[in-house]
Amino acid sequence: MTEPLDTLALDQLFNHARTHSAWLDKPVAPQLLHTLYDLLKMAPTSANCSPARIVFVQSREAKERLKPALDEGNRAKTMAAPVTAIVAHDLRFYDQLGYLYPHADAKAWFEGNEEKIGTTAFRNGTLQGAYLIAAARALGLDCGPMSGFNNDMVDELFFAGTACKSNFLVNLGYGDVSKLHPRSPRLAFDQACKIV
Questions:
Q1: Rounded-to-integer distance, Cα 126 and Cα 43, Å
Q2: In the chain, which stretches have pLDDT less than 70?
Q3: Nearest CA among 57, 14, 78 for reference residue 158
Q4: Domains detected in the chain
């Protein structure tokens, strides 16, 4: 598994992939969401801590619960999307480290250190959210990641009684390419990178 992906795969993942705001009326099968998670969970996190917790909001009832937490500009596109993934991180992720990282007492690295817990959970949960986008694209889904919602309200609605905190949302489905705007520019290598 050391050969580069072919051009078609790279185009699907990056070069031709776009952020979608308009959606075709085509459902996403629940089994595809299981496959999506089974892919993203294999990507790396520090000490295999895997703090991401994802709620796939798919039913009409759940979408209506989510709706008041969305900024006005995000409501229509989110309600139209077949699925909205709430990407969150669990601030008690370290409770699972005995299972996830069995060759060291990794739980002791975090217990009682709130700053380290928060930083680690947020960083690695965000990474896993990015893996979710790549995995979704690899499976033929389009994505519409976004901020623009009330995190506290989402946490109360979907994570009450847990140590989970929402980070961002990703609408998932099959995008309507006829509604895409021209692609925005990106920074060149020399504007964003150095080789030292």
A1: 12
A2: none
A3: 57
A4: 21-175 (3.40.109.10)
Q: What is the pLDDT of residues 74-86, one digit of tens each?
A: 999 999 999 999 9
Does the predicted model carry a pTM greater than 0.85? yes
Contacts 24+ apart (CB under 8 A), 182-187: 183/18
**How many angstroms separate the CA atoms of 15 and 11, rounded?**
4
The position carrying tokens 């506290």 is: 152
Concatenated DSSP letters of the chain: --SPPPHHHHIIIIIS--B--SB-S----HHHHHHHHHHHTTS--GGG---EEEEEE-SHHHHHHHGGGB-HHHHHHHHHSSEEEEEEEETTGGGGHHHHSTTTTGGGGTTT-HHHHHHHHHHHHHHHHHHHHHHHHHTT-EEEEE--B-HHHHHHHHSTTSSEEEEEEEEEE-B-GGGPPPPPP---HHHH----
Question: How many CB atoms neighbour CB 30 within 10 A?
Answer: 11
Question: 20 with 141: CB under 8 angstroms?
Answer: no
- From the list 75, 57, 82, the residue with the least C-alpha distance to 146 is 75
The residue with tokens 């969150």 is: 88
Q: Are 63 and 78 in contact (CB under 8 A)?
A: yes
